[in-house]
Recover the amino acids of this structure.
């Protein structure tokens, strides 16, 4: 016994030594770069750049096709021709219920363009190859940014604000150029998390909370979870990314693709998780797998949006804008404090009244991936709520599923003579038309319509609008998925959704009522019989079979 | 169970006339499998009722997920038990006790509707081969041929929705199936109430339940049956 334990100790010691040497050997090995190029060693980048386009020119001297690729993307064109409806969409064309339209507000809106100097929406983006902004997506130094109103150019001195609303700093372009790499979430997030003019204003499921989310906020992006970047799912090919809101893969029956293949063509949940993602050998798993043809993954797995302490704007009433305070200054109110402690505007003279929401339960609707936009040439009925982007889909078309949406409730300007949604010139610090400078709707709308080249009757009004944003980020841990009973209950989350039978949603369905009637008849028969037996004293005293 | 098949049962054996020379003996009449079957079925029905009501939104005492899981597993287990029970009934010939019969039906119905209030005796005398009175036999046969098949039939169709969801109007058909399932399930629960209530008639509730636990009950035996049991199946005779 003693000899045995001695041998064990010796063996353990020996193994320990081998391990220690191995570890030491590993420590001595040179740190290998993942990339085959260290950009800080390239002579093209060993200089002080005076502007963004100069950096781009340096990039293109090696990456000869990069600008051409970018120029074919929606990131560049802000234009998307919907293959199903033929509608010409994209930021350069659509009206939304936030700041409205880009036309006449260019330098402010194009601050997030992946290029430099697009100052006129009636023309395509600048044609020079060096107008492409490589750094906004590829900087990894973390100190590259863009000014909020300079048509995409970076701040070269500490003046003004950046696209995330921070005080600007002088960007070190050389450092940024030498740092380039694959896009991280900071790159995508600096624009996409701040859509609509502020943190999480627009989408509801894309906020600065996703820079460092807890597992409960986003299982894919949390460092405690998968620590994905955006492009882990949003694959790109030739600078064109999968997963567009204008043409959504509402149902993916292809799943993970062939063995050994990683699908690069879509950003769907199914492309990784397959089409039967729940445990196949349990009753619950089988039942859940039965749901996937009718219910989008997001519907159960994103129980609410705007999680993680950052609220989203859920209502925006432009019609109340323009109020001045007692001193004649533009009024403002900050009556909403979001989860992370930050107070948010609930009124601004420039913009009107806002409503905010956190942990918002989505709006649900059948969705086949298509969205029909109410473009400015469409006649609207101002007595009804106008759907800015009507969600297409039905239970019967075989390609729709029930999806979660953020429903933005707006009240915004329209042409009251022609009944069209209106363009408005809101931004323009030096113009006499911009609403944010002059607080005059008549001028602002006239200027907006003129900039867009649209006919305008000269009369304006405000119309209630709904705008829908598919919810697909902020996937919660499975344990936080929507409980069955949230839908399988009277007045549950699916109340109002037609074309699907939902067990438990109606305890007094015709079948139940018929059954209950029978049951009550039988039960009251028993009751009556009992009462009669008691009255006649025949019951308990009843004789046995004997 | 016995060799009655050889000759047709005598009138008293069908509960029509009192058996003049019969002896009342405590005899094993519910074999172990039948008792197991009965109580498994009873337990299953209670679980199915409870989970079914929960799923239907009548109560929230159990999570929907657990309710679905229990309802599905218990229902499938019960179906399996019914397969075994059907095999048992067919091979042992005991299915015949469930055959509805008209003779004596009126007397039993009259007893429940009238006689019981007058303190009359129960008109039916259980025999070795026929432990069910005509009304019971009628009720059970309706239950076994109409009500239960409707429940498990619609249940299976309901459960296998994903195999037929591509039919036109599938969601509507599912709703119809679910409503039938629900209606019949309520009727089954009405039957459970009746079933339990009837145990209180004619004897104490305990006396009514006891045979399904011990398996033995007092039945009328002809001298021949008695002699046969004394000679060959003493284990069926308790006293």
């Amino acid at each position: 016994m003693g000899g045995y334990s001695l041998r064990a100790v010796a063996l353990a010691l020996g193994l320990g030594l081998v391990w220690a040497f191995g570890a030491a050997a590993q420590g001595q090995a040179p740190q290998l770069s993942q990339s085959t190029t260290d950009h800080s060693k390239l002579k093209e980048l060993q200089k002080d750049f005076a502007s963004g386009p100069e950096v781009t020119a340096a990039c293109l001297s090696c990456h000869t096709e990069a600008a051409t690729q970018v120029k074919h993307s929606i990131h560049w064109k802000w234009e998307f021709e919907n293959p199903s409806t033929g509608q010409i969409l994209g930021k350069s064309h659509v009206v939304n219920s936030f700041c409205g339209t880009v036309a006449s507000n260019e330098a402010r809106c194009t601050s997030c363009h992946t290029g430099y100097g697009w100052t006129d929406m009636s023309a395509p983006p600048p044609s020079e190859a060096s107008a492409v902004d490589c750094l906004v997506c590829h900087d990894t130094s973390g100190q590259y940014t863009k000014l909020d109103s300079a048509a995409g150019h970076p701040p070269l001195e500490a003046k003004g604000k950046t696209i995330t609303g921070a005080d600007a700093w002088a960007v070190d372009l050389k450092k940024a150029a030498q740092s380039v790499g694959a896009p991280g979430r900071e790159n995508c997030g600096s624009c996409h998390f701040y859509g609509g003019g502020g943190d999480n204003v627009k989408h509801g499921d894309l906020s600065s909370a996703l820079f460092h989310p807890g597992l409960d906020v986003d299982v894919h992006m949390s460092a405690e979870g998968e620590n994905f970047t955006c492009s882990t799912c949003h694959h790109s090919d030739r600078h064109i990314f999968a997963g567009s809101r204008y043409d959504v893969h509402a149902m993916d029956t292809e799943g993970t693709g062939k063995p050994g293949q990683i699908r690069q063509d879509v950003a769907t949940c199914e492309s990784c998780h397959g089409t039967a993602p729940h445990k196949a050998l349990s009753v619950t798993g089988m039942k859940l797998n039965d749901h996937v043809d009718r219910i989008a993954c997001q519907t159960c797995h994103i129980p609410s949006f705007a999680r993680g302490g950052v609220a989203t704007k859920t209502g925006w009433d432009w019609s109340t804008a323009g109020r001045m305070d007692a001193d004649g200054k533009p009024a403002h109110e900050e009556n909403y404090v979001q989860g992370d402690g930050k107070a948010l505007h609930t009124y601004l003279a420039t913009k009107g009244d806002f409503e905010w929401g956190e942990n918002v339960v989505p709006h649900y609707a059948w969705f086949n991936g298509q969205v029909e936009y109410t473009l400015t040439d469409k006649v609207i009925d101002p007595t009804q709520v106008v759907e800015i982007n009507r969600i297409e889909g039905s239970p019967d078309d075989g390609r729709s599923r029930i999806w979660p949406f953020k429903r933005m409730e707006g009240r915004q300007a329209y042409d009251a003579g022609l009944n069209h949604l209106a363009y408005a010139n809101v931004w323009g610090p030096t113009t006499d038309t911009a609403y944010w400078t002059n607080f005059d709707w008549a001028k602002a709308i006239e200027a907006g319509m003129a900039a867009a080249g649209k006919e305008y009757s000269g009369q304006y009004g405000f119309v209630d609008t709904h705008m829908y944003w598919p919810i697909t980020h902020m996937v919660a841990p499975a344990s936080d998925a929507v409980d069955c009973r949230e839908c399988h209950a009277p007045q549950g989350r699916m109340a109002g959704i037609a074309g699907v039978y939902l067990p438990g949603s109606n305890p007094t369905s015709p079948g139940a009522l018929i059954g209950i009637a029978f049951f009550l008849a039988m039960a009251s028969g028993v009751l009556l019989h009992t009462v009669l037996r008691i009255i006649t004293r025949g019951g308990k005293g009843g004789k046995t079979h004997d | 169970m016995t060799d009655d098949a050889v000759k047709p049962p005598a009138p008293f054996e069908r509960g029509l006339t009192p058996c003049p020379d019969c002896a009342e003996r405590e005899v094993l009449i519910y074999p172990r499998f039948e008792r197991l079957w009965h109580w498994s079925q009873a337990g299953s029905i209670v679980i199915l009722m409870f989970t079914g009501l929960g799923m239907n939104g009548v109560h929230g005492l159990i999570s929907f997920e657990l309710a679905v899981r229990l309802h599905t597993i218990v229902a499938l287990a019960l179906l399996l038990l019914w397969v075994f029970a059907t095999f048992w009934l067919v091979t042992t010939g005991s299915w015949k006790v469930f055959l509805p019969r008209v003779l004596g039906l009126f007397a039993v119905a009259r007893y429940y509707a009238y006689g019981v209030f007058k303190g009359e005796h129960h008109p039916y005398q259980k025999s070795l081969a026929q432990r069910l009175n005509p009304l019971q036999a009628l009720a059970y046969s309706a239950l076994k041929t109409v009500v239960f098949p409707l429940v498990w039939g619609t249940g299976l169709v309901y459960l296998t929705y994903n195999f037929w969801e591509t039919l036109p109007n599938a969601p509507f058909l599912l709703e119809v199936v679910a409503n039938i399932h629900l209606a019949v399930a309520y009727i089954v629960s009405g039957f459970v109430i009746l079933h339990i209530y009837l145990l209180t008639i004619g004897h104490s509730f305990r006396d009514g339940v006891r045979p399904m636990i011990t398996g033995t009950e007092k039945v009328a035996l002809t001298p021949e049956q008695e002699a046969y049991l004394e000679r060959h199946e003493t284990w069926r005779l308790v006293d």
User: Anything to note?
Assistant: The first strand of chain A starts at residue 80 and ends at 81.
